[in-house]
Specification:
Length: 202
Amino acid sequence: MIKAIIFDLYNTLIYFDKEVRTYKNLFSDLGIDSELELKLAKKIVMTKNFNSLEEVVQELKPNTDISLDIYKNQIQSKIDSVQLYPETISVLKTLKNNGLKLGLISNSAFNYKSPFYKLGLDKYFDIAIFSFEVGLQKPDPEIYKLLLDNLKIKPDEAIMVGDKFLEDVQAPQELGIKGILCSRDKNIKDSLHTLEDIFSYL
């Protein structure tokens, strides 16, 4: 019996109307360009709780003198552009009214948490886990286990919904969670094309 639905955040419940690869550009300007360096830099940004972009730069490249205004403006512009998918709120309300627990797991840098609260999504969720706050990121199995423990449910009592196959489908399924891809591209088979499709799995 399904007791909980676990959602990804970006490109699942909400989306950026302006898509700018701010951190990718910043990494490039810091001279971080090898595949290994980029992977490590991305992990640091996603799993450490920074207070500012300046702190990020000092962690990645200590004593680097670089103007961050353009990156701060890009990030703010992206945050300001965040939109809810049309069906998001109604689906969350219906799931809650049906007695299901709701969880969120988001691979996010510290800058991108605020839209979850600004758009009022937090009031529908029993727990929200952001990678930068817990030092873990999908597809690390420990981040899914953390959520299951908090909700006090077993893996086979949960469904995970998200837009990335590895993080939101394959990794959860390896733990016994039912993973469902959410893709609004109607050419992608075996996926939700709207969040409303989740009800056919309940």
